[in-house]
Amino acid sequence: MNVSLTRKLERWIGSKVKEGKYQTASEVVRDAVRQLAEREERRKLELQHLRREINIGLKQLDQGEVGTFDFETIKAEGRKRLAARRLQRVG
């Protein structure tokens, strides 16, 4: 397989090899492709999870299992979860 890269990407790959992080340019490309595949798989799983949660909510709605809607509480909970995710990334 032949892959054409921009000069900027070629320089970046070369810098990773020069830094000693990888032995060859092929290793850099394989690692990048592996990470891309993992990212796509994570997104696929997240989407599946989201769809399951939506279906649960729709079933609850159909069964009349609904509560009141408090947008401020929902925003506060979302901000709390976002802050927790950011802390996980940093820590």
Strand content: under 5%
Count the beta strands.
Answer: 0
Mean pLDDT: 94
Contiguous runs where pLDDT drops below 50 for at least 5 residues: none
What about the largest sheet?
none
Share of helix among residues? over 70%
Rg over CA atoms, rounded to whole Å, is: 22 Å
Strand/helix succession = HHH
Structural class computed from helices and strand pairing: mainly alpha
The total tally of domains equals 1
Total of helices: 3
Distance between the termini: 39 Å
Apparent shape: elongated
Short description:
The chain is mostly helical and 91 residues long.
Would you mind describing this structure in some detail?
This protein is mainly α. The protein has one domain. The chain is 77% helix and 0% strand. It has 3 helices and no strands. It is elongated, with a radius of gyration of 22 Å. It starts with 6 loop residues before the first helix and ends with a helix.
Protein traits:
mainly alpha, 3 helices, 91 residues
List the helices and strands and how they pair.
Elements: H1 7-18, H2 25-62, H3 71-90
